[in-house]
Amino acid sequence: MTLKDISNISVSRRIDDRSPPRKAMKPAKVIENIQRSRELELQKVLEWKDKNQQELNDLNSELWRIRTDLPELELDLEKLNNQLFELEKQYKEKENELAEADKRLESEIAELKQEFELYRCNTELDFNRKIEQLSTDCDSKVQSEIAQKQAAYMDARRKLETRKDELLKQIHEEKMHFQSENERIMERRRVRLEAVDREFARESNNLELDKREIAQAVAAVDRKWEAVEAEIARKEEETQELESQLESARLKSAHFEEKTAEIRQEIQMLDTEYQEKAQLLEQKEQDAQNFVSSTVALKEQLLAEELARRKAHNTLQDLKGNIRVFCRVKPEQDENCFKHQLFASTDSSDGKEQIIITEPLLSQQPPHTFSKPAPKNYKFGFDKVFGMDSTNSEIFDEISQLVQSALDGYNVCIFAYGQTGSGKTFTMSSATDGIIPRAVDLIFQRSRSAKDNGWEFSITGQFLEIYNENINDLMTESYLRNLDAVKHEIKHDEATRTTTITDMTTVALENQEQVAQILKSANKNRATASTNANHRSSRSHSIFMIQLNGYNAKTGESINGKLNLIDLAGSERISQSMVTGDRLKETQSINRSLSSLGDVITSLCKKSQHIPYRNSRLTYLLQYSLGGDSKTLMFVNISAKLQHFNETLNSLRFATKVNNTQLQTK
Ligand SMILES: Nc1ncnc2c1ncn2[C@@H]1O[C@H](COP(=O)(O)OP(=O)(O)OP(=O)(O)O)[C@@H](O)[C@H]1O
Predict the structure, then answer these.
(1) E strands, 468-536, where?
(2) 105 and 229 part of one domain
(3) Which residue ranges are recorded for the region named Disordered (predicted)?
């Protein structure tokens, strides 16, 4: 995570600060994220540093190992040098020995040659001397013998001759002997020479072998030396390499140290920055905590205020009256209308708005009267009077407070009363802006925003009609089949003051489209069920019942409110003599239920002991929504058409009775 990311988080945090605290990222989470990213970054840097340190350690240990091995290698080298020196010494000694042996051999050969020469000379000299001696002896003897003993000479000569022969023979023998001796000597010499040669050859051979061995040893030593030299060169190279590695490692180490220093500096800076950020975050956290606690306090205050608001709202509703009546005049296209005037409440002491309708002269004029009668005005006061130009939106603005009361846990009834065609359904069920769709929409909105205060609402709806005192389910698909046939029972639970209707379809209301669809299909069903003489929607009461069950998990509070939106049957009085059969029964049923509604409301206003809820299905059904702390609003829808004057007057009278206020002026 970069500082930019952190600042982005801070920015998003600042932006989030404006959002509701429940949706904003918690500051502790932000701090935790930043711390985690910081720790990851720091972890990465430390890992990188450790890795570099590991490499440096490896290189140092390699260098240390080389440095440790170097003396051993130097010792090896010295040993090899000593060996070489020893071998060289031996070689020189052997060479000297060989030279001496050569010399000795040469001197021996020379001596032998000399001896032989001497021996030969001596032998020759001896021989020559002997020969000479013998010759001399012979000559003298011969001479003397010749001279003296001529006779004997002959003899002697013979003798000499013999002697000579003998001598010659002897010489010959001697010579032979000498020759054999010479030969023997020569043989001996040869043998000796051969022996010497052999010895020489052997010695030479030995020497040669020695020399070869020495040469081989020298070669081996040379090789070893070369190997040693190569090893030394390799080691030197290695040393150089290692030195260069050491140098680069040193450089690397220096670089790493520089880098480490830089990183340390950076870490320090980051640390400082982190400290600053942490402080800032602490501050922010503190702020956030303050914010959270102030939010909690605000929420508590809000809840208290919500309670106060509910009370105040209810008090206001109570002050306005738990039973209120609004009057609405339907706009008419044609101008055939009786006069009616609306007055705001400024001049009225009871705070009511007024409507004055003026009776058309035609209907006032009694027979046989010749003077022009004064127009007869009927003045009625209601909580609100809406003229022809009023819109559904304006109407809803006034009643939205009652929807809030239902959300606050009160039972609320909103009735639309009036003659057929006076605008009850228009006011109550118009597709987009009628009270029912608008109320449902407002309930959805308020229930959604109430979630902020811990409220969860379940919103369910039932839609039914009461026709001839029979209840029909307007939400069921088998409406037409079950029409007026299935008996739906109304059951009250006194303990919980709740009402249930048997076999009634209950739908979870989810959106406005769904409600529009419900209204549409109910209208379609009722239109199909109508006959020419019997417009079912006009002749029956329709009740849209919205059940609001809220639970606040924070406070444990629960709320059960009910909003009943009732479109009453047309209130026109048809002379009973004019109708018979079903129409009569229908009319009687409507009149009974409408008058019992009036009676119930009047009794409630009078705070009577007995409230006649049981007099009609309608009032019995709405028992817990009429009276007590429940709120009731009745719209009296009127038409200003001339022909509707009497019905309008009746409606206004009925409504006034309900409102417990009747003003009549001339
Ligand atoms: N305030 C109004 N503005 C415009 N049109 C209206 C208004 N009130 C009623 N209407 C029209 O008058 C006609 C009759 O109205 P509506 O059906 O609401 O009367 P109703 O009282 O419900 O009659 P019923 O008792 O027969 O149901 C309708 O066409 C309706 O659109």
Answers:
(1) 470-473, 490-493, 498-501, 507-508
(2) yes
(3) 1-26
> Is residue 330 within 6 Å of ligand 1 at its C-beta?
yes
572 shares its domain with 449: yes
Which position has the higher pLDDT, 377 or 580?
377
Give pLDDT, residue 464: 94
425 pocket-lining for ligand 1 (C-beta < 6 Å): yes
- SS3 state at 476: coil
Asked if residue 462 is part of any domain, the answer here is yes
In a domain, 269, yes or no: yes
Same domain, 224 and 100: yes
Can you give the pLDDT at residue 269? 82
Higher pLDDT, 293 or 652: 652
Ligand 1 lined by 537 (C-beta under 6 Å): yes
ipTM: 0.97
Residue span of the structural domain in which 509 resides: 394-636
How far is C-alpha 345 from the geometric centre of its chain's CA atoms? Answer: 64
Residue 576, pLDDT score? 47
Angle at 299 between CA 402 and CA 551, to 5 degrees: 55
Residues 147 and 269 in one domain: yes
Amino acid 145: pLDDT: 67
Ligand 1 in reach of 423 Cβ (< 6 A): yes
Mutate to test the pocket of ligand 1, among 391, 426, 638 (most ligand atoms within 8 A of CB): 426
Q: Collapsing DSSP states into helix, strand and coil, what is residue 633?
A: strand
Number of domain units in the chain: 2
User: How far is the centre of ligand 1, averaged over its atoms, from the C-alpha of 548 (Å)?
Assistant: 29
> Nearest to residue 622, comparing CAs of 390, 462, 354, 412?
412
Ligand 1 pocket member 390 (CB < 6 A): no
The rounded distance, in Å, linking the Cα atoms of 635 and 328 is: 7
Does residue 234 lie within any of the structural domains? yes
Same domain, 45 and 191: yes
For 55, residues 6+ apart whose C-beta sits below 8 A from its C-beta are 252
Shared domain for 286 and 403, answered yes or no, is no
Tens of pLDDT, residue by residue over 198-241, are: 777 777 777 777 777 777 777 777 777 777 777 777 777 777 87
For residue 299, the model assigns a pLDDT of: 72
State in Å: Cα 410 to ligand 1 middle: 29
- How much is the pLDDT for 666? 26
Asked if 545 and 462 count as a contact pair (C-beta separation under 8 A), the reply is: yes
Q: Look at residues 282, 297, 312 and tell me which one is the last residue of a structural domain.
A: 297
Ligand 1 mean position to 415 CA, how many Å? 15
pLDDT of residue 411: 92
Q: What integer best gives the mean pLDDT of the chain? A: 80
